[in-house]
Amino acid sequence: MNSKRNNLLAVPYYLWIVLFVFAPLALLLYQSFFDIQGNFTLNNYVNFFTSRNYLQMTASSFWYAFLVTLVTFVFAYPMAYFLTQTKYKRLWLMLIILPTWINLLLKTYAFIGLLGQTGPINEWLTSMGIGPVQLLFTDASFLLVAAYIELPFMMLPIFNSIDEIPSSLMEASKDLGATQLETVRRVVFPLSMRGIRSGVQAVFIPSLSLFMLTRLIGGNRVITLGTAVEQHFLVTQNWGMGSTIGVILMISMVLVMFLTRDRKDKGALINE
């Protein structure tokens, strides 16, 4: 009786999944087999894998996604570790997560104001005699803004994984003569791998399809597959090719999730 009741309660959830997950994916896959005239074709996939431009965009997408993930990890891991050692860690965590509540477009335009030729950073550089510097529309500005936006999504799972490590393990490491750095390297880091994998998934996968930041911050100097999808759907109206790139992006994301899936690591805590 309870199982039937649970199944009935799950019906809205199943409908939501079918309508807003599987149906759009099926529509994307279906549309990818049609050209701009609406004729059935496989040329979209042939063009993608034989075009130098598309292959370069694919490599660029993975490269920039890797760089954004690396930068966020370098900053997020020390922040997460030291945050777990503070007294009011939940308060500090809330303050770090708070910017995620702000609309992405608003944050992007805020950085445009900060990094612009007449922005406060360039005004300060001018007052120092360095002069106005081209900060916007560079790879560095794109990585800075993308890493800032993605940072909470990397830090939160790492923070949770470190916070769950029993303090007795760290105390035992120190009692055995290990320094704080050795404790982090040999105890904390291996036991937090589950959080690191979740953080990598949460940052790398969305970074593959960035398009708004590449346009507004990168000034189209940073070209990714997400930019190509936007162009095909909104400019060239070649929905078939845009859908093809979308399908390839989805397959790439599934591959990334598979490669970073949860495994039974040696030395990790397995609660089963």
Automatic annotation (TrEMBL):
GO terms for cellular component: plasma membrane. Pfam families: BPD_transp_1. It comes from the Bacteria. Coiled coil: none annotated. GO terms for biological process: transmembrane transport. The chain crosses the membrane at residues 12-33, 62-84, 91-112, 124-149, 199-218, 238-259. InterPro entries: MetI-like (IPR000515), MetI-like_sf (IPR035906). Keywords: Cell membrane, Membrane, Transmembrane, Transmembrane helix, Transport. This is ABC transporter permease subunit. It is found in: Cell membrane. SUPFAM superfamilies: MetI-like (SSF161098). It is a multi-pass membrane protein. CDD domains: TM_PBP2.
